[in-house]
Amino acid sequence: MLGTRLNWLRAAVLGANDGVVSTAGLVVGVAGATGDSGTLLTAGLAGLLAGSMSMAAGEYVSVSTQRDSERAALAVERRELREQPEAELDELTDLLAERGLSARVAREAAVQLTERDALRAHAQVELGINPDALANPWHAAVASFLAFTIGALLPLLAIVLPPASVRLWVTVLSVLAALAMTGWWSARLGAALVPRAVLRNVGGGALAMGVTYAAGSLLGAAGV
User: Fold this and answer.
1) To 10 degrees, the CA torsion angle through 77, 81, 83, 85?
2) Cβ atoms of 126 and 77 closer than 8 Å
């Protein structure tokens, strides 16, 4: 379904965006305290792994709860179809009529749908659920893990690969460019205003890096 694919794509874009912002904030903050490449690499890798695992676990729990709710709703619908089929047929007729069908056509459609697969008909029309495509928590967890990891790799590589004299500026500029791109994508997918989304994304990332760099600099100066 197009809507499902768009939701997954939007989740991937937002997951990558989270990876960029959180890891950039971490490595820039550490860079404010020390210029040691080993320390920056260790901090960046720790942030990448912690963030990606956290995202994966959160998505798994969230989507598992959604799937459990879908299964429970289907169980209730299955019981109602078994115990009061006529009432369920009337309900399906009313739901179809609410979508613009005439009373006669709605009744005929409800009868045909019920004869073909009553549970599927009620699941899709009444509950908005496809019984053959329930939410998969493992898919969501893996997708979130990969999206966050891909996003986090950018600031991690940008802070450790360039020479020490330019690594901070390379990281900041590459992160802001990536945030502008993810802001553009999220706006397009959500049919929102692109300039506002890009500005919000870039501004949030810049603020996060500024705050963490300031904190790192103060701690470094204090010898902590």
Assistant:
1) 140
2) yes
Do residues 11 and 183 make contact, with C-beta atoms less than 8 angstroms apart? Answer: no
- The alpha carbons of the chain give a radius of gyration, in whole angstroms, of 25
Q: Which element (helix H / strand E) includes 17?
A: helix 2-33
Q: What is the mean pLDDT of each run of 10 residues along the chain (224 residues)?
A: 58 84 93 89 94 92 91 92 91 90 90 90 87 82 91 94 91 93 81 85 91 88 60
Q: Output phi, psi for 102, to 5 deg.
A: -70, 160
What is the spatial distance between Cα 91 and Cα 41, in angstroms, rounded to a whole number?
61
Q: Which residues of 195-214 are buried (b: 16+ CB within 10 A; e: fewer)?
A: eebbebbbeebbebbeebbe
H-state helical runs in 84-193? 85-98, 103-122, 137-160, 167-189
Q: Distances in Å between the alpha carbon of 67 and those of 63, 165, 207?
A: 6, 51, 37
pTM: 0.79
Residue with structure tokens 């799937």? 67
